[in-house]
Amino acid sequence: MAEIEPLLDLSSNVNGENFEEFVELPASTIITVVEKEKTARVASLDVFRGLSVLLMMIADYAGSLCPAIAHAPWNGVHLADFVMPFFLFIVGVSVSLVYKRVSDKTEATLKALLRAVKLFLLGVFLQGGYFHGVKSLTYGVDVKNVRFFGILQRIAIGYVVAALCEIWLPCKRWKGDVLSTKYIWQWCTMLLLPGIYLGLLYGLYVPDWEFSKALPESSSLTANDSYENYIVKCSVRGDLGPACNSAGLIDRIVLGINHLHSNPSFRKLKECNMSSQGTVPPWCHAPFDPEGILSSLSACVTCIIGLQFGHTLTQAQNHKERLRNWSALSISLMALGLLLTILGMPLNKSLYTTNYLLVTSASAGFTFCLLYLLVDVCGWKWPTFVLEWMGKHSLSIFILIASNIIVIFAQGFYVETPQNNIVQWIRNLFMHT
């Protein structure tokens, strides 16, 4: 059986002198810590990170062929809806290793904030609208329409919240179970954030609202006729539909409607089928950000849950104790999440509802238990070496492949006309088969 104790010596003195810390994406865009001196790694974390990268790539490139893989249009959970919680969960586990011992809390806090800002800005560059996707040969974005939030931005927020919890909230004077007394303030934070989230989600009054959308270019339209105005009737409280939820209200007020995701997944709903006969509801044309402010508040809890798994990893005495604690916590989270679902709360990734938070975090916990058992306990590293490699290079893979940078670059080489390129040939091949 693989010896795990050497794998736990991953924490820095948090002056950063013993480690080179860098953010690795899909696996929760994880924070991978590499010691300059010879140390072992928790291989199952790398494998989990690589698995998350693989799931994201499958969802991005095969989701259009199989709806069960792509994100659910609104309520419900598909395969792609597990990717973000997996990323955030592994961020939490990794943060517990990075900040296992903190000598200077102020300096550690500043470094954590700096890393989060860098990751956030990278996310704005990659997903803010500068790149126009595989169907376009152009690039550039009007700064008035930059999308502020996205995948990397949410991971940056989750990372800094988890880091601050790990730096400032452990009760060093309290001795006891690693999942209770020593980290009681982190558990209180896990209860406080969903409480604030639910209060805003169900308590905010959402009035009627309106927005404008640019019409397709037409020579018959004047400048004054180039936009169409829409009015969405709400005047409700506690609505969890696409049109009148308080998450959208907060984003429209704080960020501005022009800085939200312009093509939300709810447009795949039957009500928004643009090819159907009849009138399409006005909200189908509206922007909406599934990685917005309110849902990010709930998503941070997934990182803090990951912290608790990391505490068990570093402080439990043996494999059996680790697996027992992880399984008990995962079962408890799953049971509570399913109970809330039975009571009527919808599983919704775009809103990051509390039961979605619990169910997906529990799923991440079960997955981590399985990978830890197979890879770190039983030593089955050969069957998972590809995933481990992907996990170690996850940020690069995210930038080059998941963000379509390689695809966009490949389109620059064409025959006679820009549209006659290898990417277009592949798209036509799959579209006609």
Molecular shape: globular
Work out the helix count. 13
> In total, how many beta strands?
6
Major sheet size, sense and barrel closure: 2 strands, antiparallel
Mean of pLDDT: 83
Distance between the termini: 48 Å
Instruction: Please estimate the helix content.
Output: 40-55%
Instruction: Determine Rg (CA atoms, Å).
Output: 23 Å
Strand order of the largest sheet: 1-2
Flag low-confidence runs: 1-39, 218-223
Q: What percent of residues are in strands?
A: 5-15%
Tell me the series of helices and strands, N- to C-terminal. EEHHHHHEEEEHHHHHHHH
Helix-strand category:
mainly alpha
Give a summary of the structure in a few sentences.
By secondary structure, the protein is mainly α. 48% of the residues lie in helices and 6% in strands.
Describe the overall structure.
The chain has helices at residues 43-62, 83-98, 105-127, 151-168, 184-203, 246-254, 293-315, 319-342, 354-377, 385-392, 394-402, 405-410, 422-431; strands at residues 19-23, 31-35, 205-206, 209-214, 227-232, 236-237. The protein is mainly alpha-helical and 433 residues long. It has a two-stranded antiparallel sheet. β1 and β2 (31-35) form a beta hairpin. The longest helix has 24 residues, at 319-342.
